[in-house]
Structure formats: structure tokens, C-alpha cells
Amino acid sequence: MSHTAHIPSHRKPRRSASKLAVRAGVAGGVLSTLAMAGTASASPSEPVAETTLEMPVLNLDLAAEVSSAVTTAAENTAAAAVTGELHAQEEEARTGAAAEAKKAKEDAEKADAEKKAKEEADRKAAAERATRSSSRTSLQSTSASGALGSGTVTAPATGSAAAIVNFARAQVGKAYVMGGTGPSSFDCSGLVQAAYRQAGISLPRMSQDQSSEGTSVSLSALQPGDILYWGSRGNAYHVAIYVGGGKFVGAQNPSTGIVERSLSYDRPTGAVRVL
Questions:
Q1: Model-level pTM greater than 0.70?
Q2: Domain CATH for 232
Q3: Number of domains within the chain
Q4: Is residue 32 domain-resident?
């Protein structure tokens, strides 16, 4: 056995760099404290202040923490970009939906207006048919001579009445168009207004107002040029011109156009004389 077997080695073990740095810091702190204490003892007139030095904290994983912070910041930036893009897409979708809703509303309002106009036209046509049917039923119950023919004037029209009658008869066969005032198409009041214009007489445009003109006359005492009306005076829904011989000329409806008919075809409610 060797004589040195139980003698411990005098070589000190190596210490790590971090432990050496810690020991250096501790030693520096102790020396600094002793120096300050010596200074304090050399000056007995001043009280000794106890000073505590904070040891520096060594962060051995600084690189890893910096890398983690950079990664987190990048992820937050990417998330913010995605969020902004989503908000832009949502705003665009809302704007598009609002435009589509506005157009749908306008289309619905237009369709509703067209529907109401058609219903009004159908109502007027139905009223005219009902009036004609009532007139036919009433005429069938009268005598062969008829109440309308007993006192009507059959002599040819002259003067202003002739101008009105001749113009009205010249329009027979033309089209009925609601709101038409000529020359190729008329509605009922448009025809009466245009005919009276030939005699230099200005009439209102609407049938209600035309039925209020002049003076009322009996259907048994009609003269050529008299204005016939259906409905009530001042609230008529249809007008025509009496042309003599128990007949009238009127713009009836879109299916018949402007026609010359016997009073028995569609008995008027009353008549007014403007001439």
C-alpha cells in the first residue's frame, strides 16, 4: 500500500464561472462594508449609518427570455392583422347587405304601385260593366218606345254643335288610352274636351268637373252636343257626347276604343248642356 494513500490531495477543485462571479460579488460587498465602517470609526462625531447593499441578480437565461418575448410580439402582431382583416370583411358585408335591402324595398314599392294602378283600372272597368248591365235590365222593362226616345231631338246638328259632333264621329275606331288627349288616342274626358275645343269652348280635363259644367237637361230632351255622364253630377266616372238620333260617341274602354252607340247600349245617368 502506498504511504500517501490516506493523504488528501492539496489540489482545489475547479469552480464554475457563475460561482466565481457570485463569490467575487460577495467579497466586494464585504470589503466595501469594512471600508465604510472604518471611515465611520475615524469620525466619532457622526453617527454610524448601517448600509445594506443589494446583490446584483444574474439572469442566466436572458437570451431565452428575449427570444420568447420576440416570438410573443410577432404572434400578437399577426393576431391583430387577422382581426383587422375580419373587421374590414364584416363592414363590407354590412354595406352590401344594406344596399341589397334598399334595392329590394324599392322594387317592392314599385310592384305595389303597379298593383294598385291595375286594381284601380280593373275597378273602373267593373263599374262600367255593372252600369251597362243595370241599364240593359232597366231598358228591357220599358215600353217599345222607351223613355229616352220620346223627346230627343233628331234634326241634324248645326253651328257649334255640328263642329263638336263631326269631330267626335271622326274619332270613332281610335284607341282608348287612359290619360289620352289625342290625336291618335283618347280617354273619355279627353275626347269630350277635344271635341268642344273645335267649337272654341274650353272644358276642364276631368270627367267629374265636366259633369258640373253648364245646366242639367233631361235625357228625354237631349240635343246634339250635350255632355252625357255616368255616376252623379260633379262626381261622374264617365262622360260622352250625344250626337243625335238617340246615339252617343264616347271613348268607352281599352277593349272597345272610341265607338258610336245607342243610348240603350249604356244608359247615362244624366246630361248637361254647355252650348
A1: no
A2: 3.90.1720.10
A3: 1
A4: no
Distance CA 37, CA 226 (A): 138
* Residue 221 DSSP code: G
Task: Say if CB 169 and CB 239 are below 8 A apart.
Answer: no
The answer to whether 229 touches 271, Cβ cutoff 8 Å, is yes
* Residue 33 in this model has a pLDDT that exceeds 70: no
**CB proximity list for 256: less than 8 A, separation 6 or greater:** 176
Considering only CA atoms, which of 137, 129, 114, 91 is closest in space to residue 256?
129
| Within-domain flag for 121 | no
Closest CA to 189 of 122, 120, 258: 258
Question: Residue 61 pLDDT more than 80?
Answer: no
Q: Which domain holds residue 156?
A: 142-273
Is the model more confident about 132 or about 215? 215
For the stretch 119-161, pLDDT in tens is 777 777 777 666 665 555 444 444 333 444 444 445 567 789 9
pLDDT tops 60 at residue 38: no
Say if 170 falls within a structural domain.
yes
Residue 233 lies in a domain: yes
